[in-house]
Amino acid sequence: MYGDANSKFNLSIDWLERFKAGHGIKSYRRFGESGLVVMENIEDASPQIRAK
């Protein structure tokens, strides 16, 4: 009814990008560069941040 069940589903990158743009699908970075945080700096700055 909908084609061969054994056929491989194949999409191009362009098709996927157009689909995402047409449906408003976007990718966001929630927290950038989180691996570069030095924990000692955070511990030193915590009292100053809490005082505000």
Automatic annotation (TrEMBL):
<feature type="domain" description="HTH CENPB-type">
    <location>
        <begin position="1"/>
        <end position="29"/>
    </location>
</feature>
<dbReference type="InterPro" id="IPR006600">
    <property type="entry name" value="HTH_CenpB_DNA-bd_dom"/>
</dbReference>
<protein>
    <recommendedName>
        <fullName>HTH CENPB-type domain-containing protein</fullName>
    </recommendedName>
</protein>
<dbReference type="GO" id="GO:0003677">
    <property type="term" value="F:DNA binding"/>
</dbReference>
<keyword id="KW-0238">DNA-binding</keyword>
